[in-house]
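Q: What would this chain look like folded?
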Amino acid sequence: MYLFFLFGLLCAVGHHIFYSTLHGRIADRQLEMLRYGAVLAFATKAGLVAAVIVAFRQRLWLTVRSKLLSVAALDSLFAATDDITALWNLEIYRTASVAMTLASFVWLAPLVIIFTSNTLGVEVYFNTVNGSCPNVRTLNFNKESTENWRDPTIIDDLIGQSMSTWNATATSEKFTADDFDYYTSSSGTIDLTATMATFTKQTVVRPGIMEDVCGLGWNCSYTIKFTGPGYKCVELAKGVGSTVGKFGDHDPPKDFGFDFLLPKGNFSYQAQTMGGEYYQSQVSPVSPGGMPTDLQPPYPKNLGAFRTEPVIWVGYAERVDTRPVNRTMPGWDKAFIPHVFACEHYETAYTIRFSHENGKQTTNVTDRQYLAKVMDTKWLQDEVNPSPHDNDDSDSTQASPNKNHTTDGTNDPTIGYPASSYVFPQQLERYRKVAAYHSIGMLMRGFIEGTLHSGNVLNPIGVGKALQTKLLDPRQKWFPYPNLQDRLQSLYEDIVLSVLAEPRFVSVVWAANPDIITGAVSDTSPGQRDSTYPCERSRFENRYKYLRRDLWIVYGLALLLALAAIVAGTMAVLQNEGVMHDTRFSNIVAATRGPALDKLRWQSQAAAASGAAGDGGHHGRDLPRDIKNVKVGYGIVPVPGSEQDEHSHSQQYQPGPHGLDDNTRVPGRMWDAGEVRYGFGLEGDVRQLLRSDIGVVPRRRARSAQRF
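A: My prediction, written as structure tokens:
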């Protein structure tokens, strides 16, 4: 009894320890873990039930030794832990309430398994880990300064890509100290990248970046810093009747301003972005590769020079009243607020927060610091290099091949001030970097250049590609978004950040080691040390949740009841002369070997006839009702021949009027005179035990008359 209880207690503690080790862990092998928990719950229940059953048996024997019960009640009492129908007998609840309480616990014990099975669950947990991630890339445009198209960077058998394409004054074989490379245009790779970013209206994402950086099944975020190109925009004027002033030293372009914007003009959007643009055909004629055919060193001083960087001038009308759709309708003059702003190209220090979540990349520019202008010159838009042939009336066939009639030996009519701030091809590293910035800026300027005629709001007419960008709102009849200035800066940043989607660019480097060009492959250094960068990883996880309180409420109640049963069983053992009893066959035989019950008719007439016919009867299953109601108890049963007096607590055997015959004996059994046995007997034939403060003494029940 005590060992069974200890076993159950240890299993309950083990169940608690097992679930405690699972609490907060990733919920893998769930069925397996639940099975282990069920095994421990079964073991706990088995140990406690076994202890209670042993205690029940002690109470059972104490009850039959101290009380008289009907045969039916005894049937139910002995079967109470094995046959649930035995619980329907109400008599045993009156005469053996403690024993039946213990039996009820046995039948209710499976609830322990049912309730504890729900104490280990799974909850969704948002796990955040501050650690590091591999393959985190950033931008280093200084790499453009050192990239030589004649000797390109090769990574994983792929040629590194630049932002720019180049012409040269001579072939590599004839290249001398007087020769140089000069800018032509943006490269096809950056053209494609910028086009995708502009027309998808978001930063281009490199395929597989989440798995490379975050790891399979994880989200992650990190912050990178780099220096790159950016546009600094300033609003110059706002409202009907305003005038456009200077932007720094720059004068607004011609045919631009509030006179052209709604409500006075017809444009809801107007952008001039190419004033002072680098002239691609610097000289003519040239052979393939831009090599001058009619020029010999020394070449024109300004050949290939960046003279100025075009300023972006944007005017737009904000629609504040949607009712007027043409200027004939009332309220037209108050339906729009015109704005004008300008943007200049700067080298900018960026702080960018990247987030990769659920397969989607988002970027947030948390800080931008404008460091210096890409070109610190002013475009003199009213001045063009004059040609001495401008007033020449000679035959046109003799005209100069310089179609713009400039005098500096190039075809580029742009004049910037001061000329000392020009960036020349001979300034090799600076020139290449300015060329990279210029290429990216030129692409964005080309996308937003143009106008949108909204004189009839319901039938806007666009010129240029601005309709394909995120600057104009299709839900507002293609009117610009009210925050157009911020969206223009964001569009340019989308293009710049999209460079990261093509790791073949030489400007793409590891964030942890900005001097190492990444190429299109993942980091293969030992432990990925070249690319490991601080990041925050997160994901939703299924984790085990142990309901400790619920488990111990169930086990605590079960253990408390089992302990009470053990106390009751221990008290019964003490009252049973310190001897533990059970209901094994040998114990039952020892308890029923006396002849005192042979006087009862244990079979109905039908059963007796059947037994006489040789089928052995029904073995007590079909007892007569009057037999079931006979009071029977367990104690000292005297046998015939006993001559002990009343003081010895036994008496002469007196056959009663019950049953078949008073002198019935068990066949083949020899009884000694004066023999006394413990066993079951009828009321009046059995002496039972009474509690006393000095021990346990037998008592004799008065025999009551029974009629059968």
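The first strand starts at residue 69 and ends at 70.
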